């Protein structure tokens, strides 16, 4: 109990650092589809979350003191505590319980949505109660406490990971990105998901054309012209927490663009959704018309969708209507789609 009574500024500063680490690693994990780097980021994210859990006894003492003093910003502090609890609980449910639906949301959707709100509430809370690092914070005692906290959270992470394997929980089957297998080689079982406000459009496949633009010239290509030229085996890893390995068929982008193209390729959906990819990747990018030997369904992007191996699902543009080669670098866009 004496240790808990010493809770104060150091606890708040540690919690702030951990929240920043958890949010930043979570955002980075969303962007990574390659197992190696994604694994490192996922472990960092999980350890940061467990370290926050380990700080709860100390933070509860700080919170009770502030509540008794009736300090300004108590509402934001309480909201932050509730939201962090929801984010931690939903994250734990996803990592240990597998991909599932909770009413209208999945644990991953609840986890990510809660984290976005936490960030906003945290900024409001810090405006009232700013926590600024001081030179006096860098003490041997603080360093030892930080190492102990990191070691405790790391050990807890290893135990949870091994428990998932030993107890044969879904946690033992996660991909290194944190996603669960769902619908591999079974397209009908693969979930139908869109990015935020996107919805499945009404489609007239007979009139569908993809406009391919290079410089000032453009031409239109029908889905029939794209079908059957190339086949690729690729994993669609959705940021919603699931993945599926499928056989996709269509035409590689390097067949439609000049040899040695530079710059970037802007791929646009009929919904207005778009992503810009490096022109150097066109030999691995596929405009797919078929999935698992059958034509794409509307929910999975028919008549034409982009297949981007090694990238998370939000790069795989559905209902493609335009492909444009431009001089702009591929990274000159928002890290994540804004619609």
What does this entry look like structurally?
With 339 residues, the protein is an alpha+beta fold. The chain has two domains: 2-179, no CATH class; 187-326, Oxidoreductase, molybdopterin-binding domain (Sulfite Oxidase, Chain A, domain 2, Alpha-Beta Complex). 40% of the residues lie in helices and 18% in strands. It contains eight helices and eleven strands. The strands form two sheets. Strands 1, 4, 5, 8, 9 and 10 form a six-stranded mixed beta sheet that branches. A hairpin with a 3-residue loop joins strand 4 and strand 5. The chain is elongated and about 70 Å long.
Write the layout of secondary structure elements.
Layout: H1 2-5, H2 9-31, H3 35-54, H4 56-68, H5 74-97, H6 107-128, H7 140-166, E1 180-181, E2 210-214, E3 217-221, H8 223-226, E4 230-238, E5 242-252, E6 264-269, E7 274-278, E8 286-291, E9 294-295, E10 305-307, E11 320-326
Parallel strand pairs: 1-5, 2-11
Antiparallel strand pairs: 2-3, 4-5, 5-8, 6-7, 6-11, 8-9, 8-10
Helix pairs in contact: 2-3, 3-7, 5-6
Features:
single chain; 339 residues; alpha+beta; Sulfite Oxidase, Chain A, domain 2; six-stranded mixed β-sheet; five-stranded mixed β-sheet; 11 strands; elongated; disordered N terminus
In summary, what is this structure?
The chain has 339 residues and is α+β, with helices and mostly antiparallel strands. The protein has helices at residues 2-5, 9-31, 35-54, 56-68, 74-97, 107-128, 140-166, 223-226, and strands at residues 180-181, 210-214, 217-221, 230-238, 242-252, 264-269, 274-278, 286-291, 294-295, 305-307, 320-326.
